What we know:
- Helix 2 crosses helix 3 and helix 9 crosses helix 12.
- This protein has a 7-stranded mixed sheet with strand order 4-3-2-5-6-9-7. Strands 1-8 form a two-stranded antiparallel sheet.
- The protein contains 12 helices and 9 strands.
- The chain has 287 residues and is of the alpha/beta class.
- The radius of gyration is 21 Å and the shape is elongated.
Amino acid sequence: MSVDLCDIxxxxxxxxLHGIKFKKEYGQNFLTDAGTVCxxxxxxxxxxETILEIGPGLGCMTRELAERYKRVIxxxxxxxxxxxxxxxxxGLDNVTVVNSDIMKTDIFELLGDYIDGGVSVCANLPYYIxxxxxxxxxxxxxxxxxxxxMVQSEVADRLTSSVGGKDCGAITASLAYYxxxxxxxxxxxxxxxxxxxxxxxxxxxxxxxxKPVQPIDENIFFRTVKASFEQRRKTLPNSLMTGFSxxxxxxxxxxIGSCGIDPRIRGERLTLxxxxxxxxxxxxxxK
Length: 287
């Protein structure tokens, strides 16, 4: 089925043909600009043979990815779109469509056979589940080369902020541990159907081959990061109390000071190295 899947009339015709509608619960917003689709497909990675596409929708991006990479594994949660993709991707022998929820998918089972040739991710993520999906991918420990996602513009600011910067959040520090995020370009809301209320942006994360810091205990490291952002307006000892209730405020204040960090600082101002030093001190204190 060789049609322009970015054309609004075609999108509606295909959906009518298959008797399907846009589903808000899956955050379905389909791109209607071919140039943007091609740019994402072209820039989503460097040299990977395999692309994991999350949420192929009607297959517009999938087709462009299939032209550029050795294979595409497209994971689609909406069962109603599977017969649509069978039609729109007809003849593309290097595409495999999997009807599954990526949050419940074993990444190594799905992609383990393709590690040697390099694997990257390309996804237009639903706004409501952006962070959980990103953390699912990085916490899987799968050796992705790149993870490229289209997200809400405000989220893109957070993902690409420097750790300790004004837009830094827990997701910023967590992702910085796994990779380096850069904003590729913005995508206006009017390039989607249905049109979302906010603009989007494409973010590419180059995954680290070696982590920039080496915490004693990764679990304590991420616990430290999360707790530091729980109450952004409070000083670091008060924030950490939400995640380390087994330690007193006095204990936490002394631990923070032992790391050369001013206890009056807010967690959002810490660098990745300071998060690591603090988590190591907390790890030792909890032994």
